[in-house]
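Appendix B, record 7
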Amino acid sequence: MKRSSFALPYGLWMLLFTIVPIFLIFYYAFTYMDEFTLENFRMFLEPEFLGILAHSLYLAALCTALCLLIGYPAALFLASRDFKRAHIIVVLFVIPMWMNFLLRTYAWMTLLEDTGIINRFLEWIGVGRKKLMYTERAVLMGMVYNFLPFMVFPIYSVLAKSDYKLLEAASDLGANALTAFCRVTLPLSVPGVVSGITMVFMPAVTTFVIPRLLGGGTFMLFGDLIENQFLTVGDWNFGSALSLIMMALILISIGILNRVDPSGQAEGGGMI
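Structure tokens (predicted):
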């Protein structure tokens, strides 16, 4: 049997669930009442929709920055040779990902609600209850919690495979810990950082479950707007145009990040 016969099911799968849906999105985006038009894209230029996009990009960028700020030290700590229990912590990062995304978000609702654990603790220490639910902070916390593993694992994977002899050589040449990190560890970790930023930023821009549950519908992000056009308004043409715009923004962001590390792999640390 020819190898092409084994590839046939995968080709059919790609055709039915990738190529055909993308073709339909392009068709609906550039048509209205089966006639070619650019009106769907012109509607996007209205201030209301541009504001939603700007707010979504702002929250996604903030979420990505927080994930990097928290995830890089965590990955660096896990990849350290002095830490012997790294595999246990890695498993603790993985376990929440085994749960449904929706359930993880509901768990945050029980923590942040007015009678939740956090408010009960604040009341117990005398601070008093705070409005935590249905705020931008709640949405941001939910996004960071759900997407943090996608930042930690790529960086940890790169650092764990790096050659520790480079750090030993840097130390022998008189480099202190900070210099060794800036000239060796940081350049080696760039591919993991780029991969982590990509894996966090893209779902953060398109998410719609987290803003709906933790934001309570008080504000709308770009993912909510697209879902609303398809499921509530029923305007598939405008919804498809928004989807294409989102796809273009994601491809642009990937292109920008690839310029940071064009080879997609570490070339080694900097010179001491």
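Remarks on this record: The domain at 33-260 is CATH 1.10.3720.10 (MetI-like fold). The beta strands are 31-32, 35-36.
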